[in-house]
Amino acid sequence: MSSGPDLDLDLGPDNLDIVDPDSYLRGFPHATFQRLRDHDPVSWWPEHDGGKGFWAVTRYEDLLYVSQHVELFSSAEGITLEEIEGEDFHLRRNMLEYDPPEHTRYRRLVSKPFSRREVYAYEEGIRGLARDVVLEARDFGDRFDYVDRVAKQLPMRMLGRLLGVPDSDGDWLVEQGDALLGNLDPEMTQYPVGLTDTDEFKHIPFRSPAALELYQYAEHQADLRQGCPAHDVIGKLLEPTIDGEKITDLQFKNFFVLMVSAGNDTTRYTMAAGLKALAERPEQFAELRQACIDGNTDLVESAVEEILRWGSVTMHFRRTATQDTELRGKQIKAGDKVVIWFSSADYDERQFPNPYQFDIHRSQNDHVAFNLRSPHLCLGAQLARMELKVLLEELLPRITSVQLDGPIERLRSNFICGMKRLPVKVTWA
Ligand code: HEM
Description:
By secondary structure, the protein is α+β, with helices and mostly antiparallel strands. The protein contains 17 helices and twelve strands. Helix content is 43%, strand content 11%.
């Protein structure tokens, strides 16, 4: 791995407004966040849409501190910038929006099907799906949009297999998932928050009508399993735990919506970020391709971790201060919103040597893309890792080269860092 600046990465201007979704249309504004990490690591940002403003925590070490001190920085008042109060919030609340001990109890109800062992039981089926999608892309030719043909197709179909829903529902689920997380982008939803009136949806997750459709779908799936228990993830979620605790109907529906949102775009955009990084670095592409052919799982897994760090697709989550406190000399008041920026922490040079270099060999890659050292560590981490690994193993041996082939289009969002279109030209083996 060579040293020196990574010229393929556009760091952008260093003075962008990090609240404005338009600031992310050219990619994550690294130079702006580097300036914040260096000169104002806990900075105050006013909001333009009536929000009360927030503190932006941009360094790795501080992100861990905020994530781990749940008694000071609570998730129970919402985890996105949007401020939701009272009954509206109670109704649309998901497990991310609880603190211990309620959160610990909730997590116990749903975590079993997501362990590494349980997830790997689905590996062969997931590999088959990845192979089918790659072969379908090959039928299409050597120039295609990687997001549309590959990255968008897989995560939801893969999650669908675990959930035990029909493969034919995959496209519909993808559409609903897109409308949830793309809720600021007019291309993803008829009701972009901030651009249209979404008041009537304020009591449902993501303030999006797609969540209502998903509630109904989840209820239907639960009904199908009544009296006829299934060994899929939905079946397991509906079973009582060994302590006899059972998920409530509302918790189940909100958790279903959470899976469809969290398990869709995040993995898709990480897949796209990974392929773009490899297309721009033919030597690493060739080395990783050979590792996939040789069955060098260690290198493939290390590449997956680097892709996760590099992509860091959930750019931030929010906490709320429970009492007056101080962070890097800033006086934070009880009730202030404190936003932790994963995409900034994952490029913090205090933690990662040469952070702007993509390196499939990176050692000690303790990235925070899944916020793994927090009580809210991503429940889908093992699933996402397996999906990314299987896709590399099925795709790379079948292509001998990949190049970018036209303009990239990005999601208009200050929350999810994603490519909507990634045109590529490949040479099939
Ligand atoms: C590359 C893909 C993914 C990324 C980058 C990602 C990122 C994250 C992050 C950063 C959190 C922590 C949130 C916080 O601290 O408040 C989280 C939580 C969560 N993720 Fe993921 N995620 C991914 C894939 C998935 C998948 C595939 C699923 C499920 C199907 C999933 C389900 C969840 C759930 C349920 C939580 C909440 C955990 C809790 O509150 O205890 N994620 N994810």
